[in-house]
Amino acid sequence: MKKIFLLIITFAVVLGCRKEESTYDGISINELYSDFMMLQNFSIDKDTVNFGSGENAVFSAVFNKPVNWSIEVTGQLSKAKKILSGQSKRIDASNGTWDGSTTIFPMFKAEACVAQLFIEGVSDTFVVATAIKSIKVNSGLVIADFENGFNSAWTRYVQSGANMDWNIKTDSLCPQGAKYLKMAGTVNWDYLIGLIDFPATAYGGGNTLPLSPNPDNVYFNCLIYGVPNTNESIVLFQFKEDENGDGVYNANTDDQYDYQITVNWEGWKLVSVKYSDIISLNNGQPTTPNGNSIHNPDKIAKISMLDLANPSNGFASCKIDYLIFTPTPLVP
Predict the structure, then answer these.
(1) Residue 163: phi, psi to the nearest 5?
(2) Cβ atoms of 135 and 101 closer than 8 Å
(3) What pLDDT score was predicted for residue 11?
(4) Measuring CA to CA, how many Å separate 324 from each of 73, 100, 176, 271?
């Protein structure tokens, strides 16, 4: 009987120890069904933020339980929007940091901004204000943003079709800066509507562009606007390399890589591609380049941008802005 009694005590002790060791990390029933409360008011750490010098703005709030939340920052002049979201009991630097980037175009300007906090299932919204002293700076090589018109070193050609409008425009909803290039017209005998050649000599780096030699560390980005109810525009970028360094791109012996974009959406959209992922095309079909078939972004001697459209489908129109090379995909 003593042995049986001791076994019972030992078993009870083991069960008791196991019970004490177990933990529960999820939300408790009391939290789950409790009414929402704001334990720390929604706030921002800067009344004025200088994104251009590398500053960030940090939003803060604390709740009594985990919630689905979103913060929508709106530029009062540009109407640009930045959206942050998460599921947590706390908003802090780990999930509420804004670096000046944009979620919905246009990009922010130096302007007053209003930030609203929305909580799922809660009718109240919470508001704070801040102001952008200087906008976020994107590190990279800008090929064209059209703010200063057409560079005299560029070569431009536009077909003599109908309703041609291949001009720089000013628009309050321009995605970057205040100007963009509109490319529109009807050309019923040819795919080409117009083109621009951007020679490397226009950018102060000699006969080739001042880019990294590593094609995995070079991204080409641009902003394109699709115009609804028009013939689909095709924007073709041709990257022409001078592989032997003789200062001239030779189509028979040098590589050309081609990036073709069919504009089948409405509104402004960011397009971004890694240089090493760009292939060579011949009439829209993949082909082998005529050089050494090695991507050398630091040997790009010229970029040609062609605006194309199916000639049988009538009037075509799109807009383009902010052609820029960056070391990582552009975060506008």
Answers:
(1) 55, 40
(2) no
(3) 39
(4) 25, 18, 12, 11
pTM: 0.85
Same domain (yes/no): 44, 67: yes
Same domain, 187 and 104: no
Q: What is the CATH number of the domain that holds 40?
A: 2.60.40.2550
| Residues 324 and 221: beta-carbon distance below 8 Å | yes
CA distances from 256 to 83, 243, 280, 281, 299 (A): 39, 10, 6, 9, 11
- Judge if 82 and 188 occupy the same domain: no
Give the CATH number of the domain where residue 280 resides.
2.60.120.430
Same-domain check for residues 176 and 261: yes
State how far Cα 308 lies from the chain centre: 24
d(CA 203, CA 103): 30
What is the tens place of the pLDDT at every residue in 277-298?
Answer: 999 999 889 999 999 999 999 9
Q: Evaluate the omega torsion of the peptide bond into residue 106 and state whether it is cis, within 30 degrees of 0.
A: yes
Domain contains 145: yes
Q: Do both 153 and 274 map to the same domain?
A: yes
Distance CA 281, CA 285 (A): 5
Distance in angstroms between the alpha carbons of the first and the last residue of the chain: 79
Domain residue limits at 237: 141-326
Give whole-number Cα distances, 316 to 94, 171, 173, 312, 323, in Å: 45, 20, 21, 11, 21
pLDDT tens digits for 141-168?
Answer: 999 999 999 999 999 999 999 999 999 9
A 10 A CB-CB count for 199 gives 19
Q: Is the alpha carbon torsion for 164, 175, 155, 316 positive or negative?
A: negative
Q: Which amino acid is at 77?
A: L
CA 105, 110, 114, 116 dihedral sign is positive
